[in-house]
Amino acid sequence: MNPKAAEAVQSLARIRAAETTDGEGLRRVWHQAADVDLLSWVDDKGMLLRQELTLFGDHFQWTTDYGLCTGQVSGSDGSSAGHASDTVALDAAISKERLQAAHAALAPYHGDDKYIEHIKHVVAQFLRGLQDRDEVVITITKNKAAKVAAAEGRRSPVVWVVVAAIAVLAVAGALLFIR
């Protein structure tokens, strides 16, 4: 284990002044420490959609669509140079060595930052051979998330199809009864 990597993860701090929101409502949240950057993209409902972790030249990219990819940065090693990495070269397959190094650096983290906890969880899951691609509610409470899910369930197209099918059957039954 690289003790400097674990120390760097422990010192990750959220840079609120650098947070941005694009025209589609995606918010970019940035955490930074020496030789470590964590960028997270969150939609307007508070769902975490993407994270990129650069840790001492190793790169980890997680999305809800593709899961986790590993890679390596060339140029600078992230924030230690004061600017983003020049180029990211993704590995053809997930690198177990990179996952093990990231896991060793992230495992000692016991803070309460949900973004760091999420990437820690993703790395641990992939190291165990599991894929974690589900959207994660990161910025809203569980109670509000349940209400959002319930509201979305009421508007579900499946519900409308079932309601329409029941209505058609009711009309058909009424027409048969009238005859």
- Count the DSSP helices: 5
What global shape is seen? Answer: elongated
Radius of gyration: 22 Å
Report the biggest beta sheet as strand number plus sense, adding barrel if it closes: 9 strands, antiparallel
Count of beta strands: 9
Order of helices and strands: HEEEEEEEEHHEHH
Structural class: alpha+beta
Averaged pLDDT, please?
78
Count the domains.
Answer: 2
The helix content is: 25-40%
Give the CA-CA distance, first to last residue.
81 Å
Uncertain runs with pLDDT below 50, 5 residues or more? 140-145
How much of the sequence lies in strands comes to 25-35%
Characterization of the model:
With 179 residues, the protein is of the alpha+beta class. The protein folds into two domains: 3-137, no CATH class; 142-178. 38% of the residues lie in helices and 26% in strands. The chain has helices at residues 3-10, 96-106, 114-127, 142-154, 157-178; strands at 13-14, 20-21, 27-33, 36-42, 47-55, 58-63, 67-74, 87-90, 136-137. Strands 1, 2, 3, 4, 5, 6, 7, 8 and 9 form a nine-stranded antiparallel sheet that branches. A hairpin with a 2-residue loop joins β5 (47-55) and β6. The longest helix has 22 residues, at 157-178. The chain is elongated and about 80 Å long. Mean pLDDT is 78; it is low at 140-145.
The gist of it:
This protein has helices at 3-10, 96-106, 114-127, 142-154, 157-178, and strands at residues 13-14, 20-21, 27-33, 36-42, 47-55, 58-63, 67-74, 87-90, 136-137. By secondary structure, the protein is an alpha+beta fold. Strands 1, 2, 3, 4, 5, 6, 7, 8 and 9 form a nine-stranded antiparallel β-sheet that branches.
